[in-house]
Structures
1.
Amino acid sequence: MFEVLGFDEWLAPIGCAAHILSFGESSSPKLAELLDHYRTMVILPTYLAPDQRRKIYKQKLKQILQNDPITMEIDGVVHKFRYRSKAGDLPSSTATVKEALELISTPADLHNIPPLLAGVVRAGHKLPLYYYSMFLRRAAAHNQLQLIMDCIKTVDRTGFKLNHSAIINELLVYLQWPAIKSGWNEAKTKNALKQVRLIVNILESGKSHEPKGDNEGAFPYYRDPQVLGSRLHMAAARAVHLKEGKDDDGLVARFAQELVTLWPEDKGLLDLQPDESYQKGGPMRYLLDRNAYLFFASPVLNGLTLAAQVVDPALAMQLQNRADAVEAELQTALAAVEGQEGRGVSIYNSLFNPEAEAGQAAEGEEEA
């Protein structure tokens, strides 16, 4: 059994054996075996000196290493390194992460993903965006979004970059989700606003999260109206639902003015980026899925309409102009998914059709 390390411990500077990447307990032997195998074959060799590491991958040294393996003491245990073929013996990082995420069934399992991601980075490998999104969804389902926030803050170790519109906005919606689903519980709403603002600040100051090449959009992410719509949503929800419609600290007005300055008049969410962004391989193509559009656009629309109730009439008219354009897009998406279920329909109903959401929840309880 591996030593269970806290997040700060396994991310501590390397050089002390106690800080070598380890995994905690797993809910299933299969997951434990998967992580153990990846640690043994991929992660541990990264702690060898470069010349030693090169030796264990040399076919001509296979017999020598079989009789006289390279040894290293880790956490009081002597590990022996014999020859291994990069092509035939090493588990795929992508396949390992995919299988690990599929095997997750408890919050404790989730806590093994950050060190796994750190191991992938140590090995010099890269993962497709999909697997970070998959981790995010698992974390949201288990109320473990702080794990995601920790990974983002330590991006150089974990590789969890906010450098694509899809992953950024997916995270922003999931950060708002607890407040939305609670019916605007005060603590959850305030926390959501705090977390969303933190993400915007990270996008503005974190060089590690800057997009490259085809991921770049029409705006820097920290000035993207879709991103800033999340911040406005939580500030406006707090004012309307928790402060009797009063913008005491002026956040709603400030965020609303910044948003309308960046968001062109009469334009919907789908009009904010150039047409080529929606072509095959484009960074905004994810919004073309109708259920996905509902998931991403519903909080933005609600933020615009709530903020319009709080700010002065002139600014409210500008917000409503953008809201009307988003509403038209959203109604088209709704018509396309009529009779379907999914996270987009769920969040839309939570915000705009709570009776339907309550009905679905009741049906789910009866079936259970």
2.
Amino acid sequence: MSISHALLGLLEAGPRHGYDLKRSYDERFGHDKPLHYGQVYATMSRLLKNGLVEVDGVESGEGPERKRYAITEAGVTDVAQWLRTPEKPEPYLQSVLYTKVVLALLSGRDAAALLDTQRAEHLRLMRELTRRKSGGDLADQLVCDHALFHLEADLRWLELTAARLDRLAARLGERAA
């Protein structure tokens, strides 16, 4: 996800301080990976430099000055364009699993055990997400559904691969010869 576009989108609701942006981002998008303050301020600095935000005000108080940022027309245009642009589908997100299976087979290790261990981890995470989904708000439910559907697809691949291990091992043996 583009953090800069998410922060710009949050600014469309009105000017905010970096602290407020971080809190809003974390509430909506950062359940599993909250932003660091440094990341927010570095991103805001880049957006300011690129003319996508401007400083709407500065407040003095105890500690450093607090800048309030506002999105510019260029920033609004940039967010609108980003929202219209489809994301590139990434069909190989779990290619690491394939690599592990092939390397296990090539090295004579137990690829079936690797698949069983991975299946157990997927199922554990699916149970955790299902619990989280049942107690979450609509946004959390949608995030959990997205993750669950991806995990289900991975599980189907794990099952299919387990059923084809003998054929894959034979094929890899043919290539090595």
3.
Amino acid sequence: MSKAAAKPEAEGEAPPKKGGKKLLIIILVVVLLLVVAGGAVVVLLLKKNQGEDGATDAHAKEETHLKVDLSHPPTFVTLEPFTVNLAPAEGDHFLQVVMVLKVVDPEVAEQMKGYMPEIRHEVNLVLSSKLPSEISTVDGREELAKEAMERINYVLGFEKPSAEQMKRNPGPWGPVISVLFNSFIVQ
């Protein structure tokens, strides 16, 4: 007898195709690439935001902390010693003080020589207007130094800015940055 004819497969079933596995692999690779690319974009955006925040923080730190450049030391002008009678409300007292002015640069120090008589006059007025009790504390001496600095800067042509201007720009507002006391004797 003749061989039986091979049964035809059911009409709804198709023989497995070899191309189907390739298509599945391609789809998986594309999805994997999209996930990796999305992750890379997220990482780059996060790093960019951190970089901007870091730059802002570094800039803020730079503004709040003075940089000390040891290759360019500050310029100091030592004034001749002052001996003044203090305000007489608490008896007879006198003050002997040696002041040093910290200025913005050596050129200013040279230019100050021409103003020295007027600077000494203003400092004498400030010193002699104080009571011994006003300058016996650290706060009192700091206030005295601040007042002397303001008067000296005024002599040099720089008026103290308003409180609002000082808030916007808290840095030095005149050529004399600070007044230092090398010696301070009250008797």
4.
Amino acid sequence: MNTKQQGILFTVIATIIFGITPAVGKLTYSMGSNGIQLAFLRHLFVVPLFLFIVLYQGQSLKLTFQQIKDVLKVGLIGNTLTIVLLYSSYSYIDVGSATVLHFLYPLFVCIINFLFYKQALSKKQLLCLMLAIGGVFCFIERTSASMFGAFLAVASGIFFAYYMIGMDHSSIRYMSPYVFNFYLVMMNSVVIFLLGMITKSIVLMPLKGYFLSMIVAVLTSLIGVVLFQKGICCLGASLTAILSTLEPITSVFVGILFLGESLTGMKIIGCILVLLSTFILVKSQGETT
């Protein structure tokens, strides 16, 4: 198996994992959990695992002052809010719909670069913007809960775009991914726990709820992240991003098969429009690099 084939395999497995775990996480909601608690447990359970990996590899945990600022800024604003908002959206809309709306983040990356880094929007990017907006409207139903859930999912995409840009334009890009993720999950565990205590979202669950939360944590925050990073190393960011469109498709079908979620004609059209906008956007970026 050559490098490209390995990269495809790593990326496909990672995106399938990312597509399945929202459904696993939502199963805990019927056991008393919620978006904030799931986000807290997702990070807490992998803190010792990342610490073990860093120490086993003999890497230094020492950070410069600039790295500390970047980890706090990018981690809190980008990563923490992304996960809290996305997981919270599962309480109001289907996991498939939430994942598709979250996948607007490549478009938001272009918009943020345009607004703050003076990168002009091409005709293809403007076309993607119109397709994406049309796709979003296909998911919004005439209920306040659905509109609020859609808002949370779209907002998670905005903050994830900030997270990606923040990593690209900061000292984090030169850090070891394991060291960065160790500090990230440790920080998120503390911050989300405090948020959970303030909002009274930290509750007791049956043992099965904690077991399922641990599965989500290990699969997403450890295995999925590592495989996805390896996929980027083997294929490059553009091709990896195109393959990652398997994630929302997986979430939609897993939600239908295991959570009994519905798939209407409008949602199908919305899926097509959002994924088409993502595919065109990422492919056009790959052609210009």
